[in-house]
Amino acid sequence: MNEEITVPLLIIVAVILISQSIYLFIHARKYGHNYWFWGIVGLIQAPMPTLAYLIFVRKVFHKKNPEGMKE
Asked: Which pTM does this prediction carry?
């Protein structure tokens, strides 16, 4: 099993990782989080850093009670 990684695949992966890193950097900076950390972590792997940022830092998936307050 001698599979080589092709150049177009490397370019696609690089574009995905760089765009994810830029998104995390800008978004974390806008909301006052540790933006350098999230920018660097975004270069390592996709899509787990983005999901971790949205779930644990931004708390996107929190339920709201009927009065509109977060629980």
From this structure: 0.76
